[in-house]
Request: fold
Amino acid sequence: MTDKQNAPANNGKKVGRAPKLDNGFYSQDIISVSQFTRENLEYIFGVAEEMRAIVKRVGSTDLLKGSVLACVFYEPSTRTSASFIAAMSRLGGTVIPITQGVQFSSVSKGESLPDTIRTLESYADIIVIRHPEMGSAQIAADYARKPIINGGDGVGEHPTQALLDLFTIEEELGRVDGLNVGMVGDLRYGRTVHSLARLLCLYDVQFNFVSPEILRLPLDVMNEIRNHDLPVSETYDVSEIISDVDVLYITRVQKERFADLSQYEEVRDLYVLTPELMEDAKEKMIVMHPLPRVGEISYAVDSDPRAAYFRQMENGMYLRMALLAAVLGKA
Ligand code: NCD
Reply:
């Protein structure tokens, strides 16, 4: 039903980058935030709003009745997989969840993943994949005739998280242009940071990055920000920026990405957001986190109305409902 136009039965060759969504989301792979325009974002956020209204009013709809989503996760996930499953269920579709027994092998060598994708696309209309290797979602898309959604490819990207993050910023603060955004923690390995920072380059924002030296933002992301002439600062110290930011985006140190665990031990507890630190923050600002948190935000912050991370998480379901409906041509 939604075969990608002119999709080749790829015989093992890598064919590169997912195209921009100039003609909308229908039948497209969602691999990288570099595909999106501001128009795409406005559109999908509008649909996500409608999805929220439907869920609040009646819980579900049969928009995607008869459609099947395959969810294949080669890395642990709670929110991304559960929210995609909930999203498809609330749209009346069904899910093939594959999390057990999936063995990771190097997809850049062309092993196993293409066969898995070919198998799943003969049963499902759309596939969400999470895989530890950067570039894996693009490789899957190169092989697949059905749309592929990147649910996180190693230290690469996490485009659906960036969409829900940006949706949350707009919902909470009413705008994106003119905001001062602080990003804290593991900027090196945190794929949600890479995707959100890139996506924010479509707007007029100011960046403040906070990390230890070994977890600084990768050069390619920094260069993209510089190419857009956006103001950017880097520091080790959250207290230097906390009073300036409209958005404080905190991240977990990504233990699983460290080759040397003693390096992880050195940086794991560097940043902890506490109510005392929040006293210096603006009255109207938000604290975000893609979750899971492992100590970066003290539980005492949860009752602060500026703590937006649970609302952010809920938004993920509405946004993913919108995305599934749009890619399957039913939005
Ligand atoms: C993030 C991820 O998987 O990159 N989690 C998520 O999808 N919400 C962040 C993380 O694992 O730290």
User: Anything to note?
Assistant: The mean pLDDT is 93.
